[in-house]
Amino acid sequence: MHQGPFKVETWRANMAGSQFLSMNAIDPDPDAKSSTASPLPAPVDDPRVYLAAERTFLAWIRTSVALMAFGFVIARFALFLREYRTIMAKPGPPQSSVSSWLGVGMIGVGVGVCLLASIRHRVYVHALKAGVANPPLPTTLALATAAVLAAAGVAIIVHIFLTL
Length: 164
Fold this sequence. Notes:
Helices cover about 65% and strands about 0% of the residues. It is mainly alpha-helical. The protein has one domain (about 45-164). Helix 2 packs antiparallel against helix 3 and helix 3 runs antiparallel to helix 4. The protein is rod-shaped, with a radius of gyration of 27 Å.
């Protein structure tokens, strides 16, 4: 079996003695001991890292725009239900503004996601410029967005069943 220019045994031997190195601080001579204090970390110079951060930021912006559009649709859903009752001549419960409030809330969530994504992106890029190769990011924004969307979906289902 041909494995190309690198054999598995050579790869395993190299990996056994290797250390984890960051992308921006590769030491050409790891055995040389320096008596001076370690220099400040250099900024991450790989443009792919910055482009990946920007793609993630744009995905969050796209999500926030979709949340705001979804909120607008929810807010206008009450108008559709009112017209539907008029056409079908169905008596219904008194009109409530649940759809309007839920829609405004979703628009607010979209605005909040947009602002938090901007802050998160700015913190991440500043950490990259400060020399942190892979800054930790909390997942609370993603989990909170998912929880709000799940709660809004349940509220919409309940509202539809109560108004039809």
